[in-house]
Amino acid sequence: MIYEIREYTTVPGRLPALVKRFTEHTTRLFAKHGMECSFLSTTELGANSNNELVYVMTFDSYDDMATKWAAFQADPEWREVRAASEADGPIVASISRRVLRGIA
User: Fold this and answer.
1) DSSP result, 55-98
2) Is there a contact between 89 and 28 (Cβ–Cβ < 8 Å)?
3) Does residue 4 have a pLDDT over 80?
4) What is residue 103's three-state secondary structure?
5) pLDDT surpassing 80 at residue 66
6) Taking Cα atoms as reference points, which of 24, 32, 93, 99 lies closest to residue 61?
7) pTM over 0.85
8) What average pLDDT does range 63-84 have in this prediction?
9) CA of residue 26 relative to chain centroid, distance
10) Which domains does the chain show, CATH number per domain?
11) Is 36 in a helix, a strand, or coil?
12) Residue 92: its pLDDT value, please?
């Protein structure tokens, strides 16, 4: 089992748009592609507490992760949702990503 942690820092003032995109579309599209989002949160306290969304994905293997991300990124519905959500400008300023392997 591997876990992918993603931290999205938004363009100032655009966190609500990213939260809306996740809650109305992204998590459903993850499920459509067999992707498990095991944790989704905004940062409440600490660095980037006004501009950060953090989530954790769970995959069986690196191959599983690569295959599912490729299918998600190629999904025409995802591309449409992303474009529509960015009609007023970019949402995400930067992405930090880590992949962890569970040991217990």
Assistant:
1) EEEEESSHHHHHHHHHHHHH-HHHHHHHHHHTTTS--EEEEEEE
2) no
3) yes
4) coil
5) yes
6) 99
7) yes
8) 97
9) 7
10) 2-101 (3.30.70.100)
11) strand
12) 96
The Cα–Cα gap between 65 and 51 comes to 26
What is the C-alpha to C-alpha distance for residues 14 and 55, in angstroms, rounded to an integer?
A: 17
Angstrom distance (rounded) from CA 90 to CA 53: 15
pLDDT, tens digit, 9 for 90 and up, residues 11-64: 999 999 999 999 999 999 999 999 999 999 998 887 767 799 999 999 999 999
Burial (CB count <10 Å: 0-12, 13-18, 19+), residue 31: exposed
Contact 9, 51 (CB under 8 A): yes
User: Residue 5 in contact with residue 43, Cβ under 8 Å?
Assistant: no
**Confidence check: pLDDT of 7 > 80:** yes
**Residue 17: other Cβ atoms inside 10 A:** 19
Provide the token pair at 38.
């095991």
- 6 or 102, which is more confident: 6
